[in-house]
Design a protein that fits this description.
By secondary structure, the chain is mainly α. About 75% of the residues lie in helices and about 0% in strands. Helix 2 packs antiparallel against helix 3. The structure holds heme C. The site of heme C (HEC) has 23 residues, from helix 2, helix 5 and helix 6.
Length: about 190
């Protein structure tokens, strides 16, 4: 049966719009929910962030964090010093670029030593530490020993440029390592 153009148009329009309306209503509704959900997640993470920022650590927690930070600096120093140390050992593979990077890092990390001891943690017996209490009465000496390490790491970069080989690495290990030891003898508990 033929439907007249007018009728067909009407039927189509109605059908189309109803479907369209229902579909876009649900899709729109879904999108709104998604937006609302995303907004809620963002808001709650912002809120928990501000709650975190608002609640300061207890003095004990702060001291534990300070100890962990300075020990992290020494772990990184050991990591980088170990790179050159491995090259200096018999059978080690020399890599001039890796040695240069490691020495630059040691030099940079040495500048952080006085800073990571800025907080006096002597009063806190909780965190496990090998730092001597005498550090906080002799901060200038600590800074001097840290500076010695930085200077040795800098000089070692010149050594490396002049002797980019395993012999250079040995010389460097012999020059830098004792700067670690000098401070450990003075300020690191056994
Ligand atoms: C100016 C002083 C100083 C210098 C220089 C220094 N250290 Fe130390 N180091 C310390 C002190 C103090 C501690 C103990 C820190 C603590 O337990 O709170 C320490 C701890 C460490 C630790 C143990 C970290 C841990 O996980 O508890 C390592 C490893 C280490 N040093 C390696 C090195 C190496 C390698 C160098 C040289 C490249 C070096 N240190 C240079 C003072 C120094």
């Amino acid at each position: 049966m033929q439907t007249g153009p007018e009728q067909r148009g009407t039927i189509r329009r109605t059908g189309c719009c109803q479907e369209h309306f229902t579909e876009s209503f649900f899709r729109g509704n879904f999108m709104m929910k998604r937006i609302a959900f995303t907004g809620a997640v963002l808001l709650s993470s912002l809120m928990s962030f501000s709650v975190m920022a608002a609640a300061p650590m207890s003095p004990e927690e702060q001291a534990a964090a300070d100890v962990a930070t300075r020990q992290a600096v020494f772990k990184l120093l050991a990591f980088n010093n170990g790179i050159v140390g491995a090259m200096a050992r018999p059978g080690g593979t020399f890599d001039a670029a890796a040695a240069k990077t490691a020495l630059e890092r040691v030099e940079m990390l040495s500048t952080m030593i006085p800073e990571v001891f800025a907080k006096d943690t002597r009063a806190f017996k909780g965190p496990k530490t090998a730092a001597s209490d005498t550090i906080w009465d002799n901060k200038a000496d600590l800074a001097k020993l840290a500076g010695d390490l930085g200077a040795a790491a800098k000089a070692a970069q010149a050594t490396l440029a002049a002797k980019p080989n395993a012999d250079g690495a040995k010389e460097i290990a012999g020059a830098v390592g004792p700067k670690c030891g000098a401070c450990h003898d003075r300020f690191r508990l056994k």
